[in-house]
Amino acid sequence: MFTFTIRRLILTVPTLLFISFVIFMIVKLSPSDPTGNLPLTIPSEVREQIREALGVNKPLIVQYGLWLKQFFWLEPRIYLEHAFGWDLGTAGETRLISYQTRSPVMDLIMQRMPQTLMVVGTAYLVGTLIALPIGIISAYKQYSVFDQMGTLVSMIGFSVPPFFSGVLVIVLFSVMIPSDSYFWLPSIYDTTHEVTDWESFKFQFRQMIMPVMVLALQITAQISRFTRASMLDNLNQDYVRTARAKGMKEKTVVLVHVLRNSMIPVVTVIALGIPSIFGGAIITEQVFKVNGLGQLLIIAIQGGDVPTVQTLTFIFAILIVLFNLIADVLYGILDPRIRYD
Asked: How far apart are CA 55 and CA 280, in angstroms?
């Protein structure tokens, strides 16, 4: 397993380099100008100096190398300096600058990261905790009323896009319900809100309910169906009949033997689903005005902010490659029949 992990980590390097090059070329070929948002009164000479300072006039391969250096070498050192107070000699080096805000891209990302992690992390945890019991019970009580209801909820989660379900819950809980009602929920996420006491915590909890609900619906639909299918596959195996014939309690047979073997593909799905939920968060953050990474990406695309778009897209690509590796490692750990070495 250790050799496999090292081999996969080494293979990750050229994979990420290839992905970064593709992302860079696609974004760079788009018609964007770092001086496009500046006032028209600025002379063309000044605009040319700005392009020169940002390195836009250099050959594409030089721009690509500069971007890699800034992303993998400069920005991590700056983060370490800020986190631990070290002096790693980053003063005076050119950082990756946003075309829109004229501020470092990684600073923008770090500012918005906590909001996205709070909403996405909570949604994924809630969705997983709801999906697992639904899948287990649906498989054990196949074709029952509970199973039919679980199937219905899963089909709704698969079929309804987040931009529709988000607007729907806003209409139900923010428009149709009076604002003085206990069941009223805020439709706009206040990212400046700070939790200092019980009342502020309750407000934070209330404003997270709808975006978490929308994201958790998709997560629950996917994981519950995989759990149900995996449980059904194992419930009909010979070792289950043997365990029952030996007089084991039904609870032990289902929750220990069957569930353990059924969780092998489910854990893989859970690991692989973490990057995809960030994609769903892009739409959800727009609907509920969550000032997170998804909204930052949409604003950057609309404004032609090339550095921000390519950096965020590459971060999402890193998450996909990383969690694919984690899923493969977990699969080998959970299933003793699989040996990668």
From this structure: 33
Contact predicate 322/274, CB 8 Å: no
Contact status, residue 340 vs residue 1, Cβ threshold 8 Å: yes
Q: Are residues 73 and 123 in the same domain?
A: no
The verdict on 178 and 44 lying in the same domain is no
- Is residue 25 one of the residues assigned to a domain? yes
Amino acid letter at 144? S
Nearest residue to 79 (alpha-carbon basis) of 104, 54, 46: 104
Domain span holding position 15:
1-84
Residue 10's pLDDT band (cuts 50, 70, 90): confident
Kindly report the pTM of this predicted structure: 0.83
The model's pLDDT over 62-73, given as tens digits with 9 standing for 90+, comes to: 889 988 888 888
H helices of 236-305, in order, are 238-245, 250-252, 259-288, 293-303
Spatial separation of the C-alpha atoms in residues 91 and 295, rounded to whole Å: 30
